[in-house]
Amino acid sequence: MSTIIKAEHLSYSYPGDEEGQSVQALRDVSFSIEEGEFVAILGHNGCGKSTLAKILCMILLPEEGKLYIDGKNMTEDSITEADINDGRRKVGMVFQNPDNQLVATIVEEDIAFGPENLGLPPEKIRQRVDWALKTVGMTKYARHAAHRLSGGQKQRVAIAGAIAMRRKCIIFDESTAMLDPHGRKEVMDTISRLNREEGITVIHITHYMNEATMADRVLVMQQGGIIMEGKPTEVFSRAEELWQAKLDVPQTTELLWHVRQAGYDVALDIFDPADCAAEIARALEGKTHGGNNT
Amino acid sequence: MKADIAFGQYYEGNSFLHRLDPRWKILFSIFYIVVIFLAKNVFAFALLVLSAILLILVSRIPLRMILRGLKPLIFIIAFTAIINIFWLKGKTVLVDWWIIHIYLEGIINALLIVVRVVILVAGTSVLLTYTTTPLALTDGLERLLSPLAKIRLPVHEFSMMMTIALRFIPTLVEETDKIMNAQKARGADFSTGSLARRAKALIPILIPLFISAFRRAEELATAMECRCYTGGKGRTRMNILHSSWRDLAMCLTLCALCAGVVLLNHFAPGYTLAM
């Protein structure tokens, strides 16, 4: 497997307000993401996670540091418009507000927008659109008006638009934040299916802890830097540190933490409610257990 | 504006007219309008009425939809009719009382003008707006105008703007509704008071609407950039427009109609339009 995104010491600050005070949004961020990975980025509001996403899509240019997309240095001075477009062809983004990222009125024409920009021949665009619709399970809505769909469906159309470019990596910038629980599940199922079945690298920015537990790896950001990194089970076991970063932990972890505070020996890294109940029951019965692998 | 939207409403269907190539349909509409204005003779008008009835039948659009489209024009129609009746002088006097002189020719002329306006609106809306989606219309227009891109007219940009506008009209209407309800919940009153007062009451709706529209525009621009949009250069389209036998048949029919109208103008007896 090769590295799709490699960030080295990225820094970025927004130009200042009237008093000239610039706001440092990212400081010295380094990480790398392998092809096919599912990475969640967690962080409190204003921690710099959306700035990071914009840099990875080359909407913003980092002030310092280097960014490699699929092995190519995108922060070199010699980089051209065509190189940037090439990078965007590999790394795409799905935004928070489903309404503000759909360009065309009809679902399939919106999905075709990206491939059309690439200048593909019409029959090839048709193939990609049909494939993308099928992959997100929206085939029967192909000729529907986009504004009549539910939030979850709109977001799935946006995802179809992103994968129709045959991207290697898609960044989801709080793509589930504006949806109801049903729509959220719809979108999360689609995201994890893309990752599993199509091998698309997923970077999921969220503040829903339960969504982060689905990832292979979690990055936790605070004040523009990465403060924690690891498997979901490792990261969420460090509940106190997360709380200090003004973040939540999954509800099961929180409950188990309280049980542990009460003097019972339980593991913290259980995210399934039934497993969590079983763990507490075992602890209350006074049995020793072997589930703690942290 | 509201009447405008109803006027240009697409009626879902799969008729002969629905399946014509939008590029041709735009040209056909222009041609049809020219033919309508060519007609001078009563018999030529009869032929036009027949053609409009045929168009409506072929399109399978319910008559009440077409009548609804004509409703906003009722004042213009009434106005032109009245002017024609009272102002036109002829030979056969019907009413001659005080300053009012009405001639038979005036009444016939008024009727013909009314028929002309009705056919003009009903015919073109059946031919174009009722049977073509706004999107297909923009698409057709872009391709018809594409030669103008050579003389550096921003044809692609214009059509992109139209596409986005069409996409966001329902979204912004919905948002206006939401803002209005929110302001009503805070005690705003939009329906009473003088005109100036009511206009003033619109400010708390327009300002949030504008701010959010600008925010949307910025987000949309970022999203489009992320989808590799760099303008019209090097861009292809998924849907290719095909001309078919239908377009040829329609073209021949319209040519025949035009010839019929011209011949009737020249050779048919009867009243001839005085304007």
**What share of the residues of chain B lie within helices?**
55-70%
Report the count of strand segments of chain A: 10
Q: Helix count of chain B, per DSSP?
A: 11
Spans of chain B of at least 5 consecutive residues whose pLDDT stays below 50 are 1-8
Question: Which fold does the CATH topology of the largest domain in chain A refer to?
Answer: Rossmann fold
SS-based structural class of chain A? alpha/beta
- What is the rounded Rg of chain B? 24 Å
Question: How far apart are the termini of chain B?
Answer: 31 Å
- The amount of helix of chain A comes to 25-40%
Summarize model confidence as the mean pLDDT of chain B: 85
| Range of strand content of chain A | 15-25%
CATH architect. name of the largest domain in chain A: 3-Layer(aba) Sandwich
Assembly category: heterodimer
Give the chain pair forming the largest contact, with residue counts.
Answer: A-B, 41 and 28 residues
Q: Give, in spatial order, the strands making up the sheet with the most strands of chain B.
A: 1-2
Form type of chain A? globular
List the helices and strands of chain A in order. EEEHEEHEHHHEHEHEEHHHH
CATH superfamily of the largest domain in chain A: P-loop containing nucleotide triphosphate hydrolases
Percentage beta strand of chain B:
under 5%
Structure overview:
The complex is a heterodimer of chains A (294) and B (275). With 294 residues, chain A is α/β, with parallel strands linked by helices. Chain A has 2 domains: 35-58 and 81-233, Rossmann fold; 250-287, no CATH class. In chain A, 38% of the residues lie in helices and 22% in strands. Chain A is built from 11 helices and 10 strands. In chain A, strands 6-7-8-3-9-10 form a 6-stranded mixed sheet, sandwiched between helices. In chain A, strands 2-1-4-5 form a 4-stranded antiparallel sheet, covered by helices on one side. In chain A, helix 3 packs parallel to helix 5 (151-163) and helix 5 packs parallel to helix 6 (181-197). By secondary structure, chain B is mostly helical. Chain B is 68% helix and 3% strand. Chain B has a two-stranded antiparallel ribbon. In chain B, helix 2 (22-38) runs antiparallel to helix 6 (104-129), helix 3 runs antiparallel to helix 11 and helix 8 (155-185) crosses helix 10 (203-226). Chain B is flat, with a radius of gyration of 24 Å. Chain B starts with a helix and ends in an 8-residue tail after the last helix. The model of chain B is unreliable at 1-8 (pLDDT under 50). The interface between A and B is medium-sized, with 41 and 28 residues.
